[in-house]
Amino acid sequence: MEWLITAAGVLLVLVALRDLFHTLWHPTGRGSLSTAVMTGLWRLVRRFGADGTVAALAGPLAMIAVILMWALIIVAGWTLVYWPHIPDGFSYGPGLRPEERTDIVDGLYFSLVMVGTLGLGDIAPTDAWLRVAAPLEALIGFALLTAAVSWISQIYPALTRRRLLATRLSSLRTTGLPPPPGTTATAVLLQQLAEDVNHVRIDLTQHAETYYFHDGEPDTALAAMADYAADLAVQGQHSREAAVRMSAAMLGKALENLAATLGTYFLRTDGTPRQTFAAYAADHGYTPVRA
Q1: Does the predicted TM-score (pTM) go above 0.85?
Q2: Are 45 and 55 in contact (CB under 8 A)?
Q3: What residue ranges do the domains of the chain occupy?
Q4: Where are the transmembrane segments (predicted)?
Q5: pLDDT tens across 160-192, in order?
Q6: CA–CA separation, 151 vs 130, rounded Å?
Q7: Arch. (CATH architecture) of 2-147
């Protein structure tokens, strides 16, 4: 029975590490547990409205909730690893009576000390395998802290790229395409927009958590401006210039791929790109901006 409990603890730790790997380092960037936590928190926030201060906190709170979830699962798993072997597998400092140390609280306490790399020393493992297991938990705790810091640092460049694209589209809506229509400048501009849309799609694929960050004003929100980008692609495809039509087709294809990513992974829709962009805007509390 003792080893079954220990095995259950090891399984919990592996579940947390697998989810951490799939969220931070797997090409899809989607761990099943982290996705469930972030999606659930986002839906909860949507019940109070997607705009305002609460919505702005949804993304950061979702990341904090995921990191805490990983930490809690790891601590719980190692607690189960240690618990069946208390007190026989450990030595105790002065004032602690081993014959009284049979509670799961001791396992939880030692797990918290090790995952936090505190090394207090009042309880220490004596069994050979526990003396190996305990430092391993400390290494996992250090890796979790490092991974969390790395994760946070990777998010904001992706958010910046998305918001810059939305800002560029908003400026174009105000000033219009470079006159006269059909010039080389128009083709270059549409091609650059296509590249920016592709970057955003890749960011959403590799950093799915960025979807749950609210962008504030509509002119910095791709959820509001995506429909206008589709309008630009349609306008460009009616140009007399072959270069403009080709760049517009590239933009249209990039938008189709973006809509497919949004529909498949976040909105669970399979409609046209326009329908997906409308659902994207609604999910973030915006009205789609048109040309």
Answers
A1: yes
A2: yes
A3: 2-147, 156-283
A4: 61-83, 104-124, 136-159
A5: 999 999 999 999 998 876 655 557 888 999 999
A6: 31
A7: Orthogonal Bundle (1.10)
